[in-house]
Amino acid sequence: MPEASPRVVVTGLGAVTPVGGTAAETRAALLAGRSGIVALEDDWAQALPVRMAGRVSVDVASLLSTPEYKRMDRCGHLALIAAREAWAQAGRPQADPERLAVVIGSGYGGLDTTLEQNRTLDASGPRRVSPHTLTRIMTNAPAAWVSIDVGAKGGARTPVSACASGAEAISQAADMIRAGAADVVIAGGVDSCVNGLIISGFAQIRALSTRNQDPQSASRPFDRDRDGFVLAEGAAVLVLEREDHARARGAEILGVVAGSAVTSDAVDIVAADPAMQRRVMEKAIAAAGLAAGDIGLVHAHATSTPVGDRLEAEAIKAVLGNQVPVTSTKSLTGHLLGGAGALGAVVLIQALKTGSVPGTGNLDAPDDGIDLNLLRGTVEGRPGRAGLANAFGFGGHSTALVITES
């Protein structure tokens, strides 16, 4: 008989989000129902149709060396800070460098640097363009910097699958360990593009909320008055490890990536295919060796768009029924784009381990067409041994992660 694949365990968590500078701070804020959505006071934002976003509040420069700060885009800053937190919690595991890998997904990479340096070029000419421009704008830069930081020589990969990037990174990392290609993988997602171009682009397709007068109530997943998502920045990172490797060194096991699945709709560049949303959940549950009835909690992708939330709700109900508890913390953090799926995994792991589940904020009146067991406030009491985290992105990218208790 073939040898069974090793279990993939989680030994470290890190996060930098609009509600907290660490994974623990983020969890505390979510459980307290604190929003990180703020009005944009920048001059460049005042003429925009949307003037709010979720911004990381920590002083990034104070957490990095001066050379690190200057050589990286903000996207790289956030990924490195979150990765260092996760790596420290994991106990900085000793591993053969060629069996230590990094997978950090991003939807847009160093877009802020691209815009900034293009303005410099136009205003001051080519000699004023930073020599760090190219290495700052590379979408693979966050993964590369993290690999340099820990000495990982087993690969530094970058899934670019829009808002599914972070979740797909975790799925790829788990696959690497199961296939015997790595013992330890640092995996997650990041994006930082709170700028006029991205806000204007999303506003033009009517994807963003326009509740500028009340930013903290703007993100309303599943609520009947939702009118779009709120753009945010941030990073979330996990340390994944082969179970026997983690137990041999006495590491605390926070959870298990029991199964995952990645699909593509192959239908439309923007519109989602609900059939494939159902299929990716079914495949992830089957990959975990579980049945639908084993899932006790869902962290939904649910961004707060009128169409997107309803399609996902229908898919969840078709696969899991309407009794399993469902939450979406984008109501408080906003939408981290490439970092969103990884943050959903962090939230799910914390909930399964502690038994405290943050509910969906701003859910005053659930949409009549959404028939799910939606969590509003924080719920105490273990949601079961297994949970599901969804992540969907433009281009028809879908990823589902099944996390279980250790």
UniProtKB/TrEMBL annotation:
<feature type="domain" description="Ketosynthase family 3 (KS3)">
    <location>
        <begin position="5"/>
        <end position="405"/>
    </location>
</feature>
<dbReference type="InterPro" id="IPR016039">
    <property type="entry name" value="Thiolase-like"/>
</dbReference>
<protein>
    <submittedName>
        <fullName>3-oxoacyl-[acyl-carrier-protein] synthase II</fullName>
        <ecNumber>2.3.1.179</ecNumber>
    </submittedName>
</protein>
<keyword id="KW-0012">Acyltransferase</keyword>
<dbReference type="InterPro" id="IPR014030">
    <property type="entry name" value="Ketoacyl_synth_N"/>
</dbReference>
<dbReference type="InterPro" id="IPR020841">
    <property type="entry name" value="PKS_Beta-ketoAc_synthase_dom"/>
</dbReference>
<dbReference type="GO" id="GO:0004315">
    <property type="term" value="F:3-oxoacyl-[acyl-carrier-protein] synthase activity"/>
</dbReference>
<keyword id="KW-0808">Transferase</keyword>
<comment type="similarity">
    <text>Belongs to the thiolase-like superfamily. Beta-ketoacyl-ACP synthases family.</text>
</comment>
<dbReference type="InterPro" id="IPR018201">
    <property type="entry name" value="Ketoacyl_synth_AS"/>
</dbReference>
<dbReference type="Pfam" id="PF02801">
    <property type="entry name" value="Ketoacyl-synt_C"/>
</dbReference>
<dbReference type="Pfam" id="PF00109">
    <property type="entry name" value="ketoacyl-synt"/>
</dbReference>
<dbReference type="InterPro" id="IPR000794">
    <property type="entry name" value="Beta-ketoacyl_synthase"/>
</dbReference>
<dbReference type="InterPro" id="IPR014031">
    <property type="entry name" value="Ketoacyl_synth_C"/>
</dbReference>
